[in-house]
Structure formats: C-alpha cells, structure tokens
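Example 4.3 (complexes with small molecules)
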Amino acid sequence: MKIAVVGTGYVGLVTGTCLSEIGHVVTCIDIDQMKVNKMRDGISPIYEPGLDELMKKNIRENRLFFTTNHHDGFGGADVIYIAVGTPENKDGSANLSYVEQVAKDIATHIKRDVVVVTKSTVPVGTNDWIKEVIQNHLVHNVKVDIVSNPEFLREGAAIFDSFNGDRIVIGADNEAAANVLYEINKPFGISIFKTDIRSAEMIKYAANAFLATKISFINEISNICEKVDANVEDVANGMGQDSRIGSLFLNAGIGYGGSCFPKDTKALIQIAGNVEYDFDLLKGVVRVNQKQQEILLSKMEDRFDNFKDKKIAILGLAFKPNTDDMREAASIVIIKQLIEKGANVFAYDPVAMGNAKKILDSKVNYTPSTFEALKDADAALILTEWNEFKDLNLSEFEKYMKFPVIFDGRNCFDLKIVKNYNVEYHSMGRKSIK
Ligand code: UGA
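Answer. The structure with uridine-5'-diphosphate-glucuronic acid bound is encoded below.
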C-alpha cells in the first residue's frame, strides 16, 4: 500500500513512521524545506522517545520518504492521511484552515482514486465538509473516499502507543473504504473498531473530554482531601480498584496541559453549543483545570508574605515528562505570576528549555542542572514529574537550598521518605510536612 501523510507534527510524523515500520511505503509531506531536509537524515524535529531510531531504520530500508512537493507526495498514493494541526481559535473552536488547504491540494494533485484519511482532530461533520471541498476542487475525474481515523497517542509514549494501543477507530461511510483502512492497520495487531464517520469524530472528543474530566475530578477530591486531612493517593487507589472506575488517570496534580485536552475540551463545548446544547459538566472541568494550574501559587502565598527578590527554583517546565512540549503547561501560568510578584525565577527542565525560552518571560534564568536551580533558593517548585526529579535524594534539597521549602505539584516523593529529611514539603492532596 502506498501512503502519503500530510503534516509532520507529532501526529503525522509518528503515524507515517509507524506505518512504514509495519511494511507500508510512506511519503511524508511538509511545507518546511529545512524540516524536510532534517527528517530525510532521520532527525525528528520533535522530542519523542524512540522516533529518531525508527525513522532512520525505515529510511534505510526505503519505506519512509520526505518531501515538500505535493505532486511527488500524492503521485501514486493509494491512501492520503491528513495530519495537519487544528489549533484553537479565540472562541475555543477548532481552526480548520490548514485542513482546508490540504483538501484543496489533494484535489488539485491526485490523478487516481484515493482514500483520504483524517487523523487531525476535527469537529463532528468536518469529514463531510472535507469531502465536499475536495469534490469541488477536483481537477481529474477520480473517486475520493473519506475515512475518519482518530489518533489516541500520548506524547512521550507515542511509539509505544502505536504498537500497543487499546483500539484503532475507523469511521467510514462505505465498507470498501473501511476495509482499506482495516488492511493497512491489521499488522499493528490492535483491536479495530469500525463505525460511521460522525461517531468516529465524536469518539475522539468524548475520549479526551472524559479523561480531562477524570483529572479535574481527582484534583477537586485532592483539594478537599487537604482540608479534611485525607490522602488523595490512597483515595485514588481505593477508588481505582473498582473496575468500573479504573485506576489510571487519577493522579492529582497541577492540572492537565498539552496540545490536546485544553483544546479538545473547549472545542467540544463549542460543538455542543453549535447545536444549542450546554455542556455544563465539561465547562466545569475546564474551569477547575484553570484554577488547579494556579494552586501551588496559593500554597506559596500561604507560606510566604511576598515573593519580592526571593529565589524560586522551578524543576520541570514541560506539560508532562518525556516531552519538550510547553503547550498549555502549568509552568507558563505559574512562572508568569511569580515574575509579576517580583520573584527571581531559576528554571531547569531536562529537554523543554529550548521551547520554554521561546514563550516564557525573558526574566527567567535557565540553569544547566537541577542543582544550579536549587542553589541558595528560598523555595523549590516541582512542576513536571521527570524521573530525574523523582530519583533525587531529598538531602540534595537540604544541601543546596537556603532553607529547603518544597512545593511538589506532582507528588514525586513518598511522604514516609520525606519525613526522614529536614525539609518542609507541600504536595497535592496530602498532609504538609514541616
Ligand atoms: C492525550 C491523550 O492521553 C491521548 O490518548 C490523545 O491521543 C492525545 O491527548 C491527543 O488528543 O492527541 P497527551 O496530551 O499526550 O495525550 O498527554 P497525557 O499523557 O494524556 O497527559 C495530558 C495531561 O494530563 C498532562 O498535563 C498530564 O500531566 C495530565 N495528567 C494526566 C494528570 O494531571 N493526571 C493524570 O492522572 C494523567
């Protein structure tokens, strides 16, 4: 099967590379020549564990190609995947301008029947619209089928998820197109669920909205636990053992970030609003998350009179570990406020500092290691649960900080262990140790 993938962001590049790994010949198309040149050498423009190696292997074995030329990319393709971004508009809706451009490009370049697959997360009904755009701009008399094939990959674990996901969803309006996708995906060995196009589009939003709901729910439970002297980890554990609830995605923290949950929850509220349905529950989830991103600041305000000229060490900037992605990270909100309040911020992240520099206030100081961030700091904030931080010996905080006051937004340390050290430790939904 010859496949073209348009867009080489997280979704497109991982999808294209993994499809080549299972034996398909894949050409990835991107408009950025510099990026394409790098990818041809097997260098991924994003940090994703295992991706570079897999790209290099499949480039070497002549199954994975990169081009800026739509004509080359689409020429001879049996299947074209759309994997361009759908960023958030000001009103929370999904911006479909990149998708529209790709649909037009497909229409002008294809010379044979193709199946167009939408990987990008798009509002319900978009695939019908994509089909219309393509039909309206077709240059040659060919047949185009549309299939919705949403992705469920987690950044930082995307390669693992591609080969070990829970399900592959295929939404099509005819059996033949669904079967093409079925055959493409069969080698992954993952259970395949076939449905209609609109249900497939809805599954993606509903799944992300539900996961976001789980997180906001446990975060509210965590806030209550703090007030009633309960331990949110034990509560989550006890709840999660009920198989109807499930134990995953019940880690309390400083809210969800990233390119998906914040955008998709708001888009689903919009989608519902467009059909005059008030998705009140999901609005609450979004509100709770916004408050949760700032919760460490209120804990700090309870502890310190002010932050003026205080040295604050920030450990972790990325929205979660194993990624360099800063999109919607809680660190953005927290650091902005600390700087407004006069704090001197010293930040360290194992991989996200490059991206952080592009968006955070220029007053932020970046350090080459955890220890330099901690040196003489008045407080340390743990914002991302990188293993590098979880593996720290708490004596390092004692050794380097003026007085070791730690605000752990990700519950990286076991309270029983913390008690053995001379540190002041505030975490999420658990008793503070002073
Ligand atoms: C999420 C979904 O997990 C994927 O299934 C989906 O494909 C993807 O969005 C997408 O729509 O493309 P991702 O955003 O990469 O993946 O990251 P997650 O691992 O889901 O984490 C999202 C956020 O939730 C992170 O900020 C994380 O710290 C937070 N989180 C997660 C918690 O606060 N608690 C938890 O228990 C789990």
